[in-house]
Amino acid sequence: MSETLHTGSGPRLPRQVADDYVDGLIALDPITGTYLGVAESSAKLPDFSPAGRAAAAELSRETLARLDAAEALPGAESDAERRCGRLLRERLTAELAVHEADEDLRAVSNIHSPVHSVREVFSLTPADTDEDWAAIAERLRAVPEAFAGYRESLGLGLERGLYGGPRATETMIGQLTTWAGQDGTAAAFFEDFASNGPQSLRTELDAAAAGATAAVVELRDWMTAVYAPAVEGRPDTVGRERYARWSRYFNGTDLDLDEAYAYGWSEYHRLLAEMKTEAAKILPGAGPWEALKHLDEHGTHIEGVDEVQAWLQGIMDEAIENLDGTHFELAERVRKVESRIAPPGGAAAPYYTSPSEDFSRPGRTWLPTMGQTRFPVYDLVSTWYHEGVPGHHLQLAQWTHVADQLSRYQATVGWVSANCEGWALYAERLMDELGYLKDAEQRLGYLDCQMMRAARVIVDIGMHLGLEIPADSPFHPGETWTVDLAQEFFGLHSGRPAEFVESEVTRYLSMPGQAIGYKLGERTWLLGRDNARAAHGDAFDLKAWHMAALSQGSLGLDDLLDELSKL
User: Fold this and answer.
1) Quick one: 325 exposed, middle or buried, by C-beta within 10 A (0-12, 13-18, 19+)?
2) Domain residue spans in the chain?
3) In which domain of life is the source organism classified (predicted)?
């Protein structure tokens, strides 16, 4: 484990430079501050205009220059300083590449955009006292300016011929309509949220929430009247150059994309064979997705939203109780995680939010219900091992727990998507290895989740790069991938409903290179474990390896494999 971070008035070593960067970032991005539990951030929102984005990029450039000097100092060669400096340089370089390509000017998505960040942060903002709600009122009053800055960035993108995808644009317009309370499915998000505040601030909160809703409507109307017509007919896919840039950002390495595409297909064939075996146990003579449809109607299920929330909490509580002391050593504050129901109007996929730095806000898993009240459990079991325990929660909460031995940067904002998603997928596989998927129903659901991640590699790379479907594919062999083919393939190889499949493909189109990190990250974690096991032989201790691996902070995939193999 890394040695303790020392601070002082002398020259700044890499970990101190990294933590100075976090301070600067919080000043520019109060949403990040709220995720970290910084109380002063609760009343503010970032500047999403071109000027605000330029300021963030300048902070990154200044930090890289300071890192150059820090790495030349005595002491910078220690493992702790070296590992942090390597992560900081890789992350900031990747982020600057995205900024300098003006990707900020076409950030339209169904899950990953400034407006989604604004909406989500309210669910994490402290709301326990009148003072908390006064800060929320101020943050609500900041929504119009934040949305106006985002619109300014999108408008500049149009002027420069930089277009978001038409499909993501249409989806986001629909989401904004939901958030405004104008599609009949839910109350206006900001007004519904503010209604939970104290009566003493009722007038102030209602006015601020109404202003935020008006900003949602204004942005929706502009996107409908101006942005959507401008991007109509433009490609939803991004091509190899943009894809490689985003892949570096999400995976922390320059991948061989053609090799990754081939790996996705190899996993597809392996998993399909396993799924057929499990499907035969459920419905003899049926294929995997016929068996899954059977489970939708006749399999084990939970009835009711409150009931499924409690049931998911039970899955995580049981996993903590059984794994702590056997395969992990968990601090008491890491043992707490909450199951929550996601607010309406977002994407269909479950997600996780990390604890605040002081653990006053615990880690939380979020289930979007998509209007459902009946929940088949076959895919929820392994999904909650992924989102909660031993997946995202154990990794990200452990980083927070050991932040004083790493750096604040490594434990929080320096995270690499493929590292985290790879660990969470490894966690699903670990629970299968340990026998926690108790019957064919749960195993088929787990394999369906694995197949979804293999299909992501195939369709994400295939459609964005316009690759050919292999000759040994049972699906349109020899044809070139299109978005329509990708959605058809994904739907044929997933037990999830049509609206989920559509949401997922829109997500891949608007977050190119992110979806492949699950499978490629899992491969890295498994190979790192295999290498460490081979190096130690009979002395290999899986529990010790898990805790050392979870206590080293984030790394890109190349660096992650190197470090995991040494543990």
Assistant:
1) exposed
2) 246-518
3) Bacteria
